[in-house]
Specification:
About 20% of the residues lie in helices and about 40% in strands. The chain is globular and about 75 Å long. The model has no long low-confidence stretch (mean pLDDT about 95).
């Protein structure tokens, strides 16, 4: 495919475009869904296409096509679109200068998911379903979804970059419901890897591990005490602090969104309590959002969004790096050849602090420990609302009874100033998907973090 992409770039150069970027993709995607032991969805598709971006007179033209042999015509169409759009632009687009790379990245997975028999995949789902059903007699429904993908991506630019890479994804998502008399509960769990193949399900995300994780949350919901509404001191665990880092704060630091967000104009200012640092890092080995290059051919990097309480740096692509006069950070990502690259997070987290976990709970007469979330949403003004599917009371400095029907909300930029302590050491990641007009697989997390009363508002039935 590279030869055809190179010829297409030459077509754009002859037309007079100031920059041409041609991406190619060839791969396999499979999705399966099992409901209570029955397969209700099984789809496979081959993705084979190209994406062309052309910069002409300070305007973009973008064309995608499922016909790689039509790359030349796609470049001509993108050129015409950019030429037509240029006169209406108030500010011409410029790109930050970057180094060009020529690289071929080979797969290191042990078991490519496209080579695994469908019977083995179905058996994995059956084993997971059975394990959950046997965990507690009150389990009433089990849905298991798995997705796998394998294929190659290509990038050729008019600046000399030529990159070929092999990508893999394996993903599992169970949704489990429970019932006891009139009381209902539900929980979900999600794990994924872009650095391993099917062996991920054999060595880490086994039916037993995933089943225990999700079934225990349903059990705790059924046995939990009703939540109290109001504001209390609290400690947020790695999965909850991760969703706050990503949803409520990370999007504010994506340079294309910052101008209309609560972080607008605040670079260089104190935005958090003393000692708070938050990072997006695309270089962490084995992490879900890690890659050698982004979809503009820029190596990912460590972006210190908040460093020692100061808003320090934003995530960029080449366009916004030039616009705000900041370095390129390697955060340009596209879901597939159907989309242009946009600024996306990778692995976003709060940096560890210097408290022991026990110290975080000291002196809390009553509060909550929020261990896992079910779902949530946030706005550009930093307001957030998150449903918590695993939580516990904190009573006299100790973790107490499980809690049900709990939700948390607040203004994340205000909550940052209410942080009283951050735990030491490593932490587990929350793996998931982010939507911003297109899907991206990301990781988020952080150590346990304590918030003072007023930092987070709790909703409940009491």
């Amino acid at each position: 495919m590279l030869d055809g992409l190179q010829r297409a770039v030459e077509v754009g150069q002859k037309l007079g475009a100031s920059y041409i970027e041609v991406r190619g993709q060839s791969g396999f995607i499979e999705f399966l869904q099992m409901d209570d032991g029955r397969i209700n969805a099984l789809t496979q598709r081959i993705e084979h296409g190209i994406a062309v971006r052309v910069l002409v007179d300070g305007a973009w033209g973008f064309v995608s096509s499922g016909n790689p042999d039509g790359a030349d015509e796609a470049v001509k169409s993108a050129y015409s679109m950019a030429k037509a759009a240029a006169p209406s632009r108030r500010e011409p687009i410029e790109l930050a200068e970057v180094k060009s790379y020529q690289d071929k990245i080979k797969s290191k997975v042990k078991r490519d998911p496209r080579d695994v028999d469908i019977e083995e995949k179905v058996q994995y789902m059956k084993d997971l379903t059975k394990h959950v059903q046997m965990y507690d007699e009150r389990i009433s429904a089990v849905t298991v979804k798995i997705r796998s993908a394998s294929g190659k991506k290509y990038l050729v630019t008019s600046e000399g970059s030529e990159i070929e890479s092999h990508g893999t994804l394996v993903w599992v998502y169970p949704w489990v419901s429970g019932k006891e008399n009139t009381r209902l509960s539900a929980a979900r769990y999600e794990e994924a890897s872009t650095s391993e193949g099917w062996e991920f399900f054999e060595t880490f995300a086994t039916p037993e591990y995933i089943g225990d994780k999700v079934a225990e949350k349903v059990k705790l919901q059924l046995e939990g005490v009703p939540a109290k509404g109001g504001s209390f001191p609290c400690v947020c665990g790695p999965r909850v602090i991760g969703v706050l880092a990503h949803e409520a704060l990370g999007h504010l630091a994506e340079a294309d969104l910052t101008v209309s967000s609560a972080f607008a104009g605040k670079q260089g200012e104190v935005v958090a309590a003393e000692g708070v640092s938050m990072t997006d890092d695309g270089t962490i080995k084995g992490a879900l959002g890690t890659g050698k290059f982004d979809d503009e051919g820029v190596p990912p990097s460590r972006v210190e969004i908040i460093k020692d309480s100061v808003l320090t740096e934003l995530m960029t692509n080449r366009e916004y790096a030039s616009k705000i006069e900041q370095r390129t950070t390697g955060n340009a990502r596209a879901e597939s050849y159907l989309y242009p690259p946009i600024i996306r997070m990778r692995n976003t987290f709060f940096e560890p602090g210097d408290f022991t976990k026990e110290e975080l709970f000291e002196d809390i007469d009553f509060g909550y420990y929020c261990a896992d979330f079910r779902g949530g949403q946030a706005q550009m003004n930093a307001s957030f609302q998150v449903g918590v599917q695993e939580a516990y009371e904190i009573v006299n400095g100790e973790i107490g009874r499980p809690v049900t029907d709990l939700s948390i909300s607040g203004i994340a930029t205000d909550s940052l100033f209410k942080i009283e302590g951050i735990a030491k050491g490593p932490f587990p990641w929350e793996h998931g998907r982010c939507g911003k007009g297109q899907e991206a697989f990301i990781a988020a997390g952080g150590p346990d973090v304590r918030f003072a009363k007023g930092g987070i508002t709790f909703g409940g039935k009491n």
